[in-house]
Amino acid sequence: MDWKIYLAGEIHSNWREELTETIQSRGIEASFFGPVTDHPASDDCGVHILGAEEQAFWKDRKGAGLNAIRTRTLLEQADIVIVRFGEKYRQWNAAFDAGYAAALGKPLIIVQPPEFDHALKEVNEAANAVARTNEQVADILTYVCTGKLMNFR
């Protein structure tokens, strides 16, 4: 089976590339999708395509609308959704993506540091798993996709 995995959340590190490489190195057939991670393109797509706005609210509204077409479509098509909350910024969009995935009944894996446990308690409750590292996520995906435990004695 070619699993469709949506990678949502934090865009300021290379966690997507690292996770994708690890999963592929384990021979798991998976396709990975996610939001546009070019921050300026994501922020400016609406005004670039639909025209300038004087107020930031309307600029953001146009961009969010276009980005939502991609996000909603790919979330709906996903077999598994992984949402990473990074330490540098508060990703309100990541929380929204997690909620949307949960509402769709998608299997959901949250990745976040322990210091976010309280702030994300409702998000974590909706998740099938809460991981701390990419390695844990890779082990979860290996088990789910192949039925094999990594480093199991």
What is shown here, in short?
It comes from Cyclonatronum proteinivorum. The protein has 153 residues and is an alpha/beta fold. The protein has a domain at 3-36 and 77-146: Rossmann fold (3-Layer(aba) Sandwich), CATH 3.40.50.
Uncertain parts: none
What's the CATH class label of one domain?
Alpha Beta
Gap from first CA to last CA: 26 Å
Instruction: Look at the structure and give the mean pLDDT.
Output: 94
The SS-based structural class is: alpha/beta
Into which percent range does the helicity of residues fall? 40-55%
Organism: Cyclonatronum proteinivorum
Protein name: YtoQ family protein
InterPro entries: YtoQ_family_protein (IPR019884)
Pfam family, one: Nuc_deoxyri_tr3
What does this structure look like?
- This is YtoQ family protein.
- The protein has helices spanning 15-25, 39-50, 56-77, 92-103, 121-126, 134-146, and strands at residues 3-9, 30-33, 80-84, 108-111, 129-131.
- It is globular.
- It has a domain at 3-36 and 77-146: Rossmann fold (3-Layer(aba) Sandwich), CATH 3.40.50.
- α5 links the parallel β4 (108-111) and β5 (129-131).
- It is of the alpha/beta class.
- Strands 2-1-3-4-5 form a five-stranded parallel sheet, with helices on both faces.
Name its key features.
alpha/beta; 153 residues; globular; 6 helices; five-stranded parallel β-sheet; 50% helix; Rossmann fold; single chain
Q: How is the secondary structure organized here?
A:
Layout: E1 3-9, H1 15-25, E2 30-33, H2 39-50, H3 56-77, E3 80-84, H4 92-103, E4 108-111, H5 121-126, E5 129-131, H6 134-146
Parallel strand pairs: 1-2, 1-3, 3-4, 4-5
